[in-house]
Write a structure and sequence with these properties.
Blueprint lengths: L1 E4 L12 E3 L2 H8 L5 E3 L5 H14 L4 H12 L3 E5 L6 E6 L1 H10 L10 E2 L4 E3 L1 E10 L2 E11 L1
Parallel strand pairs: 4-9
Antiparallel strand pairs: 1-2, 1-3, 5-7, 6-8, 8-9
Amino acid sequence: MKIILTHEVSGLGAAGDVVDVKDGYARNYLVPRGFAIRWTKGGEKDVAQIRRARKIHEIATIEQANEIKAQLEGTKVRLAVRSGDAGRLFGSVTPADIAAAIKTAGGPDVDKRRVELGSPIKTLGAHQVSVRLHPEVAAKLGVEVVAA
């Protein structure tokens, strides 16, 4: 099935790309979550608009991505969350929480979809998080989760 991506999807493509995927993947995952729309001849006109919007938000060059990487890696991020007695969190830390904590700590504005968690953060302590700034540049960021 041909679809038009409306958001960046890891391993598949960026917003505005027209890709061919299995029918079930498109019907059950991409379209319901708003990551893609079905391709039609009329929808092809939307591709230009999606690509214009992507250019506004994307990091254009590797040099620019490396500058932001240096800023991120120099930022100390502390995130205060509610936890139980044993250090387990009530819920987990989400990429949106981390993006907001980076901005609060004085770092650059990072889109939550660029924050990649290896596994859900459900305990207090120091954790390593990756921020994918460009297809070739990713920043490693230390996040300290403390009790509120």
